[in-house]
Amino acid sequence: MDTPHRQALDRLPALLQRWLPGQAHALAHGPAPAEGSPALILHLGEQRLRLEVKGSDHIGGLATAAERLAALQNDGAQPLLVVPYMGPTARAWAAARGLSWVDLSGNAELHAKNIHVHVEGQPNRATRPGRPSHAFTPRYSRVPRLLLIDAARWWRQRELAAEAGLPPGTVSKVVQRLEADDLLDRDDKGALRARHPAVLLDAWAQHARFDDHCIRRFHAVGRSGPDVLKRLADKLATTDLTWAATGLAAAWQYTAFADFRLTTLYVDRPPPDPEALGLREVERGENVRIVEPRDVGVLMGREERGCWCAHPVQVYLDLLDHPERAKEAAEDLRARRLRWSDR
Predict the structure, then answer these.
(1) Which CATH number fits domain 3-119: 2.30.30, 3.40.1350, 3.10.450, 3.30.60?
(2) 172 pLDDT exceeds 90?
């Protein structure tokens, strides 16, 4: 029996006793599915819940678990995800799909007939020293970026390495991590692509942090956000900088969803003379942010949309961390420009 199952068997009974005092409950092994570990069944009063126990809250693995649980629902047992700790992004992902879950750190969103358990605020008991390992570091994310930009294509690893500008060994490591999180499919020749592009995007969003970039704040004269963006685009066109708008400025170019005040631009290197671009550096109250990214992969797939804009995948990820109406704009951009056919 693997460690996550052992942890669930050890920890869940005490948590259920705390959350549902006096409620009869028992954990038992159920019939094993065609693949994977033996099933755990939670008997909660007269109800049965089929547990899918995962070793982390990585969204790729949760999506696979949810699919497996949905396929087994005809046995009358309700689905329940169990993880060591459910982070905020994974919680939002589960809520959007109506999935019940508990974590072994003591948090829960469990809904069954006549039973509703909501617990939050318990710290992560599953933290480990050092940085967590995943496939979405700034440099590694060139690989999932290509898989989403051309999601229908079956990629060979050497092709990914060539287009991402990464050593083959690095690409191999990223691919291994994506496969470990159930995010990839392979054909009979070994080529690969995203199993579910939308799930891959959600998994990336779980780790994306816009504030990790080097951000400089400026004020520029202009009647509006679009006016400031146009003035900057005209001046940048006379330089040899590689750049692209992101955030609400790019969302406006793609969908015209909402007007904006703050213009955010990625540049491949710092502008040598910001004043020549009409920019005055400020500590607060900025209406322009010039961003030197941790990896220039953010500029891959940029599109000309009246001005250079980062690819919609990058714009979507950035909007999740931006102010104003950014989160609404992110959902609008996703609905219009990031619609992949189901596999």
Answers:
(1) 3.40.1350
(2) yes
